[in-house]
Each structure stands twice: as structure tokens, then as C-alpha cells.
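Example 3.2
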Amino acid sequence: MSERLRERLREPEVATDVRVSGDFVRLYCDGHHADRDRKPLVSAGVDEDCYRRVPVLCEDCASLQVYAEKRRAFCPLDPKPMCKKCPTHCYKDDKRRQMREVMRYSGKKSIQRGRLDLVYHYFF
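Structure, written as C-alpha cells:
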């Protein structure tokens, strides 16, 4: 793992974004892949303590989360906009489609569970 990635994951804003994406991917995986074999995530974000709880994910969701960690860590824009409003999309098309589906599902679930701070992101 590169030292540059580790340094970026130690930044508070990056770590928070990685933790939130991990929470969303975990919710999605729990809701859609409960029948699959799932293991604790092994990634740079876990090594750098970005997560409150290490997500337990299936192989597909784990690869998406590792990809999301790297994309977030190396985002060239400062301040970082919401990905859906970003002028330069850094995700590959298939990963972007997959993450959009994860965010749509998990955002609704989080709002239903009382995370009203997410309403802004869901509608705008």
C-alpha cells in the first residue's frame, strides 16, 4: 500500500467520507447479499482506522469499497463536491453505476432509520 494513500486516509475529511461510504456499502450488502459469504473488509481504510466498525461485506461489495477508498483519497478537487455533482467523474462507469445504486438504497434506509441529516444529500 502506498504511503501517499495512507497519508490521505489520515486526513479527517477523507476518513469521514470513507467511513460514510463504508456504512452505506455495508447497509446495501446487508440488504442485498445476506445469502453470500461475507468477511470483514481488508483495506487501507481499515488499517488507518477510518471505520468505527469494520464492515463485513461480500466480495463484490468489498471490492467496491476498496475502490471508493482510493477514489476518495485521491480526489483532485478541494473542497470535494458531492460525486453526483462533480464536473470530473473519477469512477469507472460500472463502479459509478454500482455506487449510485448503493447510495440510493442506503440513503433511503438511513433516512427511514432516523438519519435526517442525509435528507439534503438525497434530494439535492
